[in-house]
Design goal:
The structure holds two protein chains of two kinds.
Chain A lengths: L1 H10 L1 H24 L12 H4 L6 H8 L3 H19 L1 H11 L4 H12 L6 H11 L6 H8 L11 H29 L3 H9 L4 H12 L1 H13 L6 H7 L5 H4 L2 H11 L3 H28 L7
Chain B lengths: L8 H28 L3 H5 L13 H8 L3 H31 L6 H10 L7 H10 L7 H4 L6 H13 L2 H9 L4 H12 L1 H17 L2 H6 L8 H9 L18 H18 L4 H9 L6
Helix pairs in contact in B: 1-14, 3-14, 4-8, 4-11, 4-13, 8-11, 13-14
Classes of the chains: A mainly alpha, B mainly alpha.
InterPro entries (chain A): MetI-like, MetI-like_sf, UgpAE/MalFG_permease
Subcellular location (chain A): Cell membrane
Pfam family, one (chain A): BPD_transp_1
Chain lengths: ~300, ~290
């Protein structure tokens, strides 16, 4: 056994040398932080380091569960994730189905190119456009409202508006890019299905609902499981840019809390504990959605 | 389904909807650009919509003579170039051995690598690693901890697997080492695939603000996105007082900075479209 292994190592020695940087990278930067997570159970101090800081068990978790913010964070994270999923999920499908009906190649290509655009803009630029357009002093949105006799409104400090603004911006940013998956699925539909439908006298509108949509249902389901599994992984980079003390009550989520407590206030152990809790809930969601989908007879992710 | 009919009501309605979709993504950028080219009076009076009023380049002159922005732009260019180079090199070094069928421990390596896509330790442990390695407040914090995106590694690996193994065998018979095969054969042969992964890395570096924001403390090291954030977004760090940054920086200058920040990305992404489908299909998660 060992001799055989030794032989293989000798045979693959050049490949192994090439592979070393990758190995080091994954050990240090992907598995290293997992080891670092033990500070969630320790009272980490910068001077003592990870190893020598004293164990405190579940103290930081208890602190978090008893924190006045806990239920607010829990509710905000789930609501924001869930509402974003529910409202944004249909858009890429709709876009793909409509694009599929376009018979003029250049128009289709043009719309597609335009729809991908927001995905490639940085969060900072997108957020700044949102702030700009919604500005109470010279934002476009308020200018239009004024024309209809509605008074200017400071949307970004109004807690009622945070979720709609966030969700709309997510739809705007991601729908085009996400439609690619569905377009690929539609491209795989056998043309004979459409021909048969045409012989039966189906209109193109009917075909959309009775041929195209049912044919891409498996893809839709896979995407739904994936999205449900990632539901609470909120785009905190955007939330950080758009929220403020006036909207914390709806906008503050686990990850933004981790950033504030852990990095801004330097309470590393507390931040790590909250982050671990979030990762745990996210993993549970992924496993559950995969399980449910399999039980319902659909495809799982694995 | 090629046109047996002329364009009907359905087509017209469809075209109108899709045209509106395209406008919704393009018009905001047109507006931003128009404001950046207009004079201040027209902007504050709200006269600017899709075409600049009082066309001038003052805003761009202000940006170029600003104390922070040109420096930040240069930083971004350097970080992006260095970062993308390291990304592509590391991804090649990782993908090549993993693409060899007989490579020792291949299945286990792959399992351990893919597993990291599902394990997310969170911001704090990542931060502590970077801190403990003494990388804080340096370029390395931006380019090393994310040197390989697992997702791009998988794409490149499957591309390497797809290239003919007979070329490799022939090179081996001729006595070429694995290093030689990788650098003189595989990499030149894989230019299209490398271009596509380089593009995603490029955009990732160019657009990133959170990582530089948490890892850098020195103003002169800030990349453009971090400076943009300071200019544009509520200054939350200065206290609970709500200051709308819009009131602090003149609109045209802000928008000129945005336009300059967008230009490279806007020039590049349309050429990469053919690669998107492949990328998205494989699962769309960055490692």
């Amino acid at each position: 056994m060992l001799a055989k292994l030794g032989k293989r190592i000798v045979r693959d020695r050049q490949l192994l040398i090439i592979f070393i940087p990758c190995l080091v990278f994954y050990i240090v930067f992907r598995y290293g932080p997992l080891y670092g997570l033990i500070i969630a159970f320790k009272d980490y101090s910068v001077f003592r380091g990870i190893m020598d800081s004293p164990w405190v068990g579940f103290e930081y978790f208890e602190k978090f569960f008893n924190a006045p913010e806990f239920w607010q964070l829990f509710r905000n994270t789930f609501l924001l994730g869930f509402l974003t999923l529910v409202f944004s999920f249909p858009f890429p499908i709709l876009l793909a189905v409509l694009l599929n009906e376009v018979r003029v190649a250049w128009f289709k290509k043009g719309v597609q190119t335009a729809s991908y655009l927001p995905t490639f803009l940085s969060v900072v630029i997108i957020s700044s456009m949102i702030i700009d357009f919604l500005s109470p002093t010279n934002g476009v949105v308020n200018k239009v409202l004024n024309m209809f006799g509605v008074e200017s409104k400071y949307f970004l400090i109004d807690a009622d508006w945070f979720r709609p603004i966030y969700i709309l911006s997510e739809i705007w940013t991601n729908s085009g890019y996400e439609s690619i998956v569905y377009l690929a699925a539609i491209a795989g539909i056998s043309p004979t299905l459409y021909e048969a439908a045409k012989v039966d006298g189906a209109s193109r509108f009917r075909m959309m609902f009775n041929v195209t949509l049912p044919s891409i249902m498996p893809t839709i389901l896979i995407m739904l499981i994936l999205k449900t599994g990632q539901m609470i992984t909120i785009g905190y980079e955007k939330v950080l840019l758009l929220y403020n003390t006036m909207t914390y009550e709806v906008a503050d989520v686990f990850s933004t809390f981790v950033y504030r407590k852990g990095l801004l206030a330097n309470d590393y152990s507390y931040g790590a504990a909250v982050g671990l809790f979030e990762a745990f809930v996210a993993m549970a969601l992924l496993l559950i959605s995969n399980y449910v989908s399999k039980r319902l007879g659909g495809n799982g992710l694995w | 389904m090629v046109g047996q009919r002329r364009f009907g009501l359905f087509d017209i309605l469809n075209a109108v909807i899709l045209f509106a979709v395209a406008c919704s993504t393009i018009l905001p950028l047109v507006y931003i650009t128009a404001v950046s080219l207009s004079d201040t009076a027209s902007v504050t009076q709200g006269k600017v919509f899709l075409f600049p009023k009082g066309l001038n380049w003052d805003a761009y002159k202000q940006v170029l003579t600003d104390v922070k922005i040109p420096r930040a732009y240069l930083n971004t260019v350097m970080y992006t170039a260095l970062g993308t180079f390291i990304n592509v090199l590391m991804t090649c070094l990782a993908a090549y051995p993993l693409a060899q069928r007989g490579f020792i421990g291949r299945k286990y390596w792959m399992f351990l690598i893919v597993l990291t896509m599902f394990l997310n330790p969170g911001i704090i442990p990542n931060y502590l690693i970077v801190k403990d390695l003494g990388m804080l407040d340096s370029v390395w914090a931006l380019v090393i901890p994310n040197a390989i995106w697992t997702f791009q590694l998988i794409i490149l690996k499957s591309f390497f697997e797809g290239t003919s193994s007979s070329i490799r065998e022939a090179a081996k018979v001729d006595g070429a080492s694995e290093y030689r095969i990788l650098f003189s054969l595989m990499i030149p042969l894989s230019k299209p695939a490398l271009a596509s992964i380089a593009l995603f890395y490029f955009i990732g570096h160019w657009n990133s603000y959170f990582i530089p924001m948490i890892y850098l403390n020195t103003d002169s090291l800030y990349p453009l996105q971090v400076v943009l954030r300071e200019m544009l977004v509520f200054s939350e760090d200065t206290g609970s007082r709500l200051v709308e940054a819009a009131a602090l920086a003149p609109q045209a200058k802000k928008n000129a900075t945005i336009v300059l920040a967008m230009i490279p990305v806007l020039m590049i992404y349309p050429f990469a479209q053919k690669y998107f489908a492949k990328g998205v299909m494989l699962g769309s998660e960055k490692g």
